[in-house]
Specification:
This protein is of the alpha+beta class. It has 17 helices and 35 strands.
């Protein structure tokens, strides 16, 4: 891999099972994995830095964090109150009419993060244009402060009606609450956009996780050497300063998975692919995202069962990872996940007392994981424990251990194939026209099998797949997103758009200056959210200053996504967006020439379980060591490739080579034959 580096930096990605490190020191890349410490993630980071001998050498640390995500999923955020306009106390609970399971008559709505007794109202009212109809009654805010204090509330979300059009009342309420010592999340600071429920939910999420993220980043910052620059990955594929991340923690809810997508995009380009699907299989979950030149984005998603409206990469996650637990339901049907063995005790094969069968244990039984090669031999797997726990589930199924283990893999792969279909087929894209970038500790182990199921012709495996999310952190730019709701007809929108963009640009310049960044180092990318008059959803298109050009792009995008367009219908400009990008230039991949081909010598032979023509067979296959496979090395399945951070399983019918950037690029002869027969090109 050819890289250009401007300073010594460290990327740290905290996962459910391992905390991954990538160090760039000059042109040297060092990778390291440390078992995560979920009760205190800072401890694993400090242990890893100590193991790498970097306690006093870190200049820049870029962090992918799960603190905010886990706080929401496990419901252990700050005790949060909500202050709303009088009459809107229950917006958070009423929500939308959407039913996640349409035909389930017994589904129960999730309890809101702020119970009703911690939601208070203040008399104030604006109209939809932001004109004051009823001034803020400050005595209502002061009364709420006393009630919040009595209830032990730590953090308060403020969401007043139409505050996105005029934040005057919210600003005053926030000032009073901050003077009283509360951590405050105000909607005009977090999401100045219409849609009352989504704005309230997002503001509440920020208040719920903000104090935890703030304390975590403060603790991490104080534990690092003085002068270290701390950046945090956010959901949109860019990084934030640590100070901004502490204040706007809701932007970090997809921190870790987003870093993996950014890394996958860089790897795909270095291998000559623009259209790929990123496939990140870690210890507790699998994250997938479609990349068509750039990763797909969306403006709204859910964390747990709570809507959050923020720019984020279109990542779909399923509970299928190496630590996912296999179990049988009441009817004897085999399931895998979403519950995971985590880092402690972890899979039974880790030898730390785990007694439930996991995907990792199944892989050990199948011979796909080499016990004495795990983590480069630093952690030997307990084969007997893996066979014992798989044997229990095999006994219930009345099958042999190897057949049960293969069944566990099949179920897990079906879950992951479903996730890939969500981001491809469900979005109108054909996965057969994409490559698959496989990473995470477990991704390369099942990538070829998964690609065969989906007729994906190529699999790209980066040089350090087990820590690609950490490496991706070091390829990201600093990105800030700004938004303003305008809600004006497109034909008369130009003055409003210019005014809104001027305000957003001024705000961005102030924020850059506060982070010590010169505006000339940034690029500014305006965009508009457009919709046909009367629609309830909108599409985002670039804005170059000409409204008519933006409307034309909207019609084309609408037709591509939904199959039709209505060029004669009036169009409404809903929101003005501004994305500010400061290039990081920490690490760059450059194209590499095609290397001369050569055949490597395996380090040994291993006995593994394979499926051949629907039959389960045990076969001796060659095993290669990744650091001995230079550019041009040819690989033909079946084979194993072991390295420090992962194991690659190459099934029969797959072959490939190591390219000039040390990616392993594999192709399925069967899928390519099908594509040739059907006339589909690459």
């Amino acid at each position: 891999m050819r890289v250009g580096v401007e300073m010594v930096v460290v990327g740290v990605d905290t996962g459910g099972t391992f905390t991954d490190f990538v160090v760039l020191d000059g042109k040297r890349i060092v990778v390291h994995k440390e078992l995560s410490t979920p009760e205190d993630p800072v401890r694993a980071i400090l242990q890893g830095l100590a193991a790498l001998g970097l306690q006093d050498r870190v200049e820049w640390l870029v962090h992918g964090s799960t603190v905010a995500t886990n706080a929401v999923l496990e419901r252990r955020g700050a005790r949060t109150g909500l202050l709303t306009t009088a009459g809107f106390r229950d917006v958070l609970e009423i929500g939308r009419q959407n039913r996640p399971r349409l035909y389930n008559l017994r589904q129960v709505k999730p309890a809101p993060l702020v119970p009703r007794e911690w939601r208070r109202e203040a008399r104030e009212r604006l109209d939809e244009c932001g004109r004051i109809l009823l001034p803020l009654e400050e005595e209502d805010v002061l009364r709420a402060i006393g009630e919040f204090r009595a209830a032990g509330v730590e953090s308060v979300a403020i969401c007043f009606l139409f505050a996105f059009a005029n934040p005057t009342h919210e600003r005053r309420a926030a000032e009073l609450l901050r003077e009283a010592g509360f951590w405050v999340s105000a909607s005009h600071e977090v999401l100045p956009e219409y849609r009352e429920y989504e704005r309230t939910s997002t503001t509440v999420l920020n208040a719920y996780v903000g104090p935890l993220m703030g304390r975590y980043l403060e603790r991490l910052g104080s534990a690092l050497p003085p002068g270290v620059v701390l950046h945090v990955m956010q959901s949109n594929g860019g990084v934030l300063s640590g100070r901004t991340a502490a204040r706007e923690a809701v932007r970090t809810l997809l921190s870790g998975p987003a870093a993996g997508v950014v890394g996958a995009r860089a790897v795909a380009r270095s291998a000559g692919y623009d259209r790929v699907i990123s496939f990140d299989m870690g210890g507790t979950s699998t994250d997938v995202c479609l990349i068509d030149g750039v990763p797909r984005e969306r403006s709204e998603g859910t964390i747990g069962e709570f809507p959050v409206r923020m720019p984020m990469l279109d990542i779909h996650t399923v509970g299928a990872g190496g630590g996912s637990i296999a179990w049988l339901d009441g009817g004897g049907v085999l399931h895998v996940g979403p519950r995971s063995a985590g880092a402690d005790p972890g899979p039974a094969a880790y030898g730390k007392g785990g007694e439930e069968p996991t995907v990792t244990d199944a892989a050990v039984v199948l011979g796909w994981l080499v016990p004495d090669a795990f983590l480069g031999g630093a952690m030997e797997l307990d084969v007997d424990a893996a066979w014992r726990v798989i044997g229990r589930i095999a006994g219930i199924l009345r099958k042999g251990e190897e057949e049960a283990a293969l069944g566990i893999m099949e179920v897990a792969e079906a879950n992951m194939a479903g996730a890939i279909r969500v981001v491809s087929v469900a979005r109108g894209e054909d996965p057969r026209e994409y490559g698959l970038v496989a990473f995470g500790g477990a991704g390369p182990m099942v990538a070829c099998r998964l690609a065969s199921k989906l007729h994906i012709p190529a699999v790209i495996i980066p040089p350090t797949p087990g820590v690609l999310s950490a490496l991706g952190l070091l390829t990201t730019d600093l990105i800030r997103d700004y938004l303003r709701t305008v809600m004006v007809p497109a034909e008369s929108a130009q003055p409003s758009l210019q005014s809104a963009l001027a305000d957003l640009t001024a705000q961005a310049v102030r924020d850059l200056s506060s982070d010590g960044i010169l505006p000339r180092d940034a690029t500014f990318h305006p965009a508009l959210d457009l919709r046909y008059h009367g629609q309830s959803y909108d599409l985002t298109v670039p804005f170059t200053g000409d409204t008519q050009t933006a409307v034309h792009r909207f019609h084309k995008l609408h037709e591509r996504l939904y199959g039709y367009a209505e060029p004669t219908e009036p169009v409404t400009v809903v929101n003005v967006r501004l994305r500010v990008i400061v290039p990081a230039r920490r690490i760059r991949w450059e194209p590499a020439p095609t290397p001369h081909l050569w055949e490597p010598t395996p380090i040994d032979q291993r006995s593994i379980i394979l499926e051949l023509h629907d039959n389960i067979v045990r076969e001796q296959v060659p095993r290669f060591q990744r650091d001995q496979l230079g550019p041009g090395a040819i690989l033909v399945g079946p084979a194993l490739v072991t390295q420090y951070d992962t194991t690659i399983v190459i099934p029969p019918g797959w072959r490939g080579m190591v390219d000039g950037n040390e990616n392993i690029v594999l192709h399925s002869r069967e899928v390519e034959a099908e594509r040739h027969t059907s006339g589909k090109g690459r």
